[in-house]
Amino acid sequence: MTDSYAxxxxxxxxxxxxxxxxxxxxxxxxxxxxxxxxxPLEPExxxxxxxxxxxxxxxxxxxxxxPFKLRAFAMADELSDRARMAGAVNALKFEDGRILADNFDGxxxxxxxxxxxxxxxxxxxxxxxxxxxxxxxxxxxxxxAGPKELVVANRSVDKARSLAGQAMNRGALVRASSxxxxxxxxxxxxxxxxxxxxxxxxxxxxxxxxFQAEGLAYELAYGKGLTPFLRLAGDAGLRxxxxxxxxxxxxxxxxxxxxxxxxxxxxxxxxxxxxxxx
Length: 278
Ligand code: NDP
Hints:
The chain has helices at 17-27, 46-56, 69-75, 81-86, 105-116, 133-144, 157-168, 228-235, 245-260, 267-273; strands at residues 3-9, 32-38, 59-64, 78-79, 91-95, 98-102, 125-129, 149-153, 174-177, 188-193, 211-219, 240-242. By secondary structure, the chain is of the alpha/beta class. The protein has two domains: 3-103 and 246-273, Rossmann fold, CATH 3.40.50.10860; 106-243, Rossmann fold. α6 (133-144) links the parallel β7 and β8. The structure holds NADPH dihydro-nicotinamide-adenine-dinucleotide phosphate. Residues 105, 130-135, 154-156, 159, 194-199, 202, 204, 220-222, 244, 247-248, 251 line the site of NADPH dihydro-nicotinamide-adenine-dinucleotide phosphate. NADPH dihydro-nicotinamide-adenine-dinucleotide phosphate is lined by residues 105, 130-135, 154-156, 159, 194-199, 202, 204, 220-222, 244, 247-248, 251.
């Protein structure tokens, strides 16, 4: 029987996940169907109802996207370490009536930076802008990559402090910063924009002094060309600029492997979905 998977979000019309998983399934010869579900926003428990209905119909797993990552976290029977630290879930697997949950956003981002863009974080100074869901998901994989230092800057500095505090319990050199204090922080090898500012064409108030010509500026949003953040980095002389399309495909590959036990290749799919930055 064909196994059934889906991505659930609201809105969901923009999703690339059926295309990505469709390509993975053909490449890996997997007998599976992958669709998109527009999840119900109201009432609060309607999302859990939609997930259970999908399970009852024989569904094997779901990708979860905005705004349901916290609700998926709340209904899981078993959480990975990553999902627990992120406080959010982006993939579910159904086994013997149980809901297993993970968060592959952070590891997808790390893989894109380290493998696809050839920028190992070990021993590097890394700056992460933002302390929302995506930043929380990235924290554990980033810490495990062994950077020399990881600085988290956020508009609400308390959120950055609380995130940095969680990571310090794991022995890593992680600090919180305000945007204003970044002017005294010197240069970073990798600067990641994990804020949602670009979705509205805004620029997080990061000073251009954090960028160095040999560094990488990474924008989590994708398909938007040169965002104000990437433009700032480019104007500061950075030659390596990237958006989050690779992260999107890499997190999908992680979920696919978790579900199917086989790892798809990602390069051709990333190329297909890449929108040139210029
Ligand atoms: P959240 O809503 O959880 O967090 C938003 C973050 O952005 C907060 O830290 C918020 O700061 C900050 N922020 C919002 N506007 C501004 C602004 N104008 N200036 C400075 N900071 C701002 O969002 P997510 O973490 O879920 O998503 C963040 C980004 O990552 C989005 O662009 C999203 O599309 C992208 N993403 C990409 C993925 C991929 O596969 N490529 C996967 C997941 C997310 P404060 O706390 O102070 O409000």
